[in-house]
Design goal:
- It is a single chain.
- This protein has one domain.
- By secondary structure, it is mainly alpha-helical.
- The protein starts with 6 loop residues before the first helix and ends with a helix.
- It is built from six helices and no strands.
Length: about 180
């Protein structure tokens, strides 16, 4: 038996997630711009943080406007998958620009994987967890090669990459 939610429920979850997608980068951007000295946001690469946050906000607004037109139609799975992969990329860039896992922004991948596992099929939710995990680990490896990052970052990254898989497998077990 397929436990996929009905299309109306999927559309409602997608609308709520799109509002989250718009609010998150807007709040991060506002926090960064109002007082960039006292915040840890973008402390490593401020230009990357600013550009990533602006692009993420603009893409979130565009997606919100496009999905508003599809209120009574089902959104293709490929489009939703691309949306979540783009979110993982944007969150990875924001996290990297802020110092990696130490900044705490890498934990936001969990929200993306959780929403993806609600809206996508089982295999795709596991794929999203894998992409998020690889992105986190790659970012930490790059930081440790380019800069003097403490070795305990890998322990934090390991804990961070396990969480999306745990959520993905838990969600698959419920289906």
């Amino acid at each position: 038996m397929d436990a996929t939610p009905p299309p109306d429920q999927n559309l409602r979850i997608l609308q709520i997630y799109n509002l989250y997608r718009l609010a998150l980068p807007a709040i991060l951007l506002a926090s960064f711009l109002t007082n960039p000295i006292s915040t840890q946001l973008g402390n490593l690469v401020p230009a990357l943080f600013l550009q990533s946050a602006l692009a993420y906000t603009a893409s979130s607004l565009l997606v919100l406007l496009v999905f508003r037109r599809t209120q009574h139609r089902e959104v293709p799975q490929r489009l939703i998958s691309g949306l979540f992969i783009g979110d993982i990329l944007a969150l990875t860039l924001l996290s990297h620009a802020s110092g990696g896992v130490e900044s705490g922004l890498a934990l936001l991948h969990l929200v993306t994987v959780a929403a993806g596992s609600l809206l996508l099929r089982k295999r795709m939710s596991t794929f999203l967890a894998a992409i998020a995990s690889i992105a986190i680990i790659f970012s930490e490896a790059y930081l440790s090669l380019r800069m003097s990052v403490p070795a305990n970052q890998y322990i934090q990254a390991r804990c961070c990459w396990r969480r999306p898989f745990i959520w993905s497998h838990w969600r698959s077990a419920c289906d």
